[in-house]
Design brief:
Helix content is 76%, strand content 0%. It is an all-alpha fold and 92 residues long. Helix 1 packs antiparallel against helix 2. The two termini are 53 Å apart. 0% of the residues are buried. InterPro entries: DPM3 (IPR013174).
Amino acid sequence: MTKLLEWLLGVSLIGVAWGLVTFDLLDLQFPPQYRELAWPMPVYLLVVFGCYSLATVGYRLATFNDCEDAAKELQVQIKEAKVDLKKKGLKM
């Protein structure tokens, strides 16, 4: 099962449970407080997902590894390319 299918399955299960509680489709006789709590739940989950996403991006950005060797190698390749282009007549 791919990650996309896992997420879609999870979201659909939560959506079905939300619909059953909110619209009382199975006549489970939930107290009105449950329906009042369940009604804005998708918005709350969307906010929580956004906070989680921002935290994940921030953490990965903060712990991003610097590749000093690769940076030096890239600088050497850029200098070589400039020299090669100057030999071929490109004016910079």
